[in-house]
Each structure stands twice: as structure tokens, then as C-alpha cells.
Specification:
- This protein is of the alpha/beta class and 225 residues long.
- The chain has a single domain, classed as 4-Layer Sandwich (Metallo-beta-lactamase, Chain A), CATH 3.60.15.
- It is 25% helix and 22% strand.
- The chain has 6 helices and 10 strands, in the order βββααβαβααβββαββ.
- It has a 6-stranded mixed sheet.
- A hairpin with a 6-residue loop joins strand 1 and strand 2.
- Helix 3 runs parallel beside helix 5 and helix 4 packs across helix 5.
- It starts with 13 loop residues before the first strand and ends with a strand.
């Protein structure tokens, strides 16, 4: 697509921020044609995940180039198209909030899976993610990473013919945040014979993943929201 420029050189870092707001999706070039995608939103031009549109427009194959895909939380504006990224980037590690790895969230997601009002919502998208993870079992895909405080999600060594050492750590959610998130999600599960209502995004967001990315001597903080 003509509005995009040429791809970064193999020893060049690049951070691209997409979305109608303040960065609903971020892609980071780590050097050596290796990329991270954080969250997702849909392109108004192609109706596909904007990170995939961007990489394809640069002539980059996302299947082999994306090394890590992180979904920081389940809110609508940061997750649309995430299941399609997961399906396309089948060689990438996938990470999501450890606060969502609980029976309460699975029950919550299932309870809204057939609700018409939830169409295209974050809950609906997470159901698609769960189905994709179940469909693509090992050895095709590695086990997803459960992001939590001080957990390394990715390490790439420049000893492997890369220009930079790369480390990606999740800084959240903490154990305390996960306990609060569990209480919140329990309150969102509809009781039997009650009307389902659209799940409301709450602030502060105790589910969200913050990332600390080190690329050689550069440090990037992506705060949860």
C-alpha cells in the first residue's frame, strides 16, 4: 500500500503505533526482520488486522517474521482481529494476561459467546482466540505464555547472527492485581435466568499486561491501560 514506506533495514529499530486512539496496536522491528506485535485493531482500508496489513505492505511475511504476539487485555479497542493474527503468525510465541487464565474468565467468556449484543466485542474475540489455541495444538504451536509480573516472554541472542540482543519482560499483572481481577470477573458472570448485559471496561484495568522491552542499549516501556 502506497502510504507505507520501505521496510526498516536489518540493523534498524522501528516502533509503529496504529489505531484511531492512542495506540490500539503496536508493532516493533527488533532487527534482522524480526517483529513483535502488541494488541490488535482493524484497518479501515482493508478490514484486516492493521499489523498484518502493514507487514504485508512492506513485503514482509508475518508467518516467519513475527516472533511474539502479545494481547495485553480483552477490551474491545485493543483486541479486534487478534484471532486472525494468531492464526496467521503460527510460528510466533503468544502471550496473554495470567489474570485471564482462570475458570472464572472461561465461564464468563462462554456465557457471552452466543450473545448477539457481544458481537465484535473483546469477549467474542477472546472466544475466537480460545478456539484457535485449541485448533492448533503442539507441535504446530508452542504453549501460550501467561504474562505476569517479572516474567520473560522472549529472548533473542545476537550470537545467532542477529544485530541485537532482545529481551521482553511482562511487568504485570501482579498477584494482587490478579486477585482483584478475579473478583471483578466473578461479578460480571450473569446469573441463571438474568439478562446478559454488555461487559463494561473498568478502570483501573487489573487484567492488563505492561511490557519492558530491551533491544541492546534501548529500553521500551509499554504501559498497560
Amino acid at each position: 500500500m502506497s502510504r507505507y514506506t520501505t521496510p526498516p533495514s536489518l540493523d534498524e529499530l522501528e516502533i509503529s503505533i496504529f489505531g484511531p486512539g492512542i495506540g490500539e496496536c503496536i508493532s516493533i522491528h527488533l532487527g534482522n526482520n524480526e517483529w513483535i506485535i502488541v494488541d490488535s485493531c482493524i484497518s479501515r482500508h482493508s478490514n484486516e488486522p492493521i499489523a498484518l496489513e502493514y507487514l504485508k505492505a512492506l513485503g514482509i511475511d508475518p508467518v516467519s517474521s513475527v516472533k511474539l504476539f502479545v494481547v495485553t487485555h480483552w477490551h474491545d479497542d485493543h483486541i479486534r482481529g487478534a484471532a486472525r493474527i494468531l492464526n496467521t503468525c503460527c510460528d510466533a510465541k503468544f502471550a496473554y494476561s495470567d489474570a485471564l487464565k482462570c475458570e472464572e474468565f472461561f465461564k464468563f467468556a462462554r456465557s457471552y459467546s452466543e450473545q448477539i449484543l457481544m458481537e465484535n466485542s473483546g469477549v467474542d474475540e477472546f472466544n475466537l482466540i480460545f478456539k484457535e489455541l485449541l485448533r492448533s495444538q503442539k507441535p504446530v504451536r508452542s504453549e501460550p505464555e501467561r504474562a505476569s509480573a517479572d516474567r520473560r516472554l522472549l529472548y533473542l541472542s545476537k550470537d545467532d547472527n542477529r544485530p541485537f540482543n532482545v529481551e521482553v519482560f511482562s511487568l504485570s499483572p501482579s498477584d494482587a492485581a490478579k486477585r482483584i481481577a478475579l473478583q471483578e470477573i466473578s461479578q460480571l458472570i450473569p446469573e441463571i435466568k438474568t439478562t446478559k448485559r454488555r461487559a463494561i471496561s473498568r478502570t483501573p484495568n487489573y487484567f492488563s499486561v505492561a511490557l519492558w522491552i530491551t533491544i541492546e542499549n534501548w529500553h521500551i516501556l509499554l504501559a498497560g491501560c
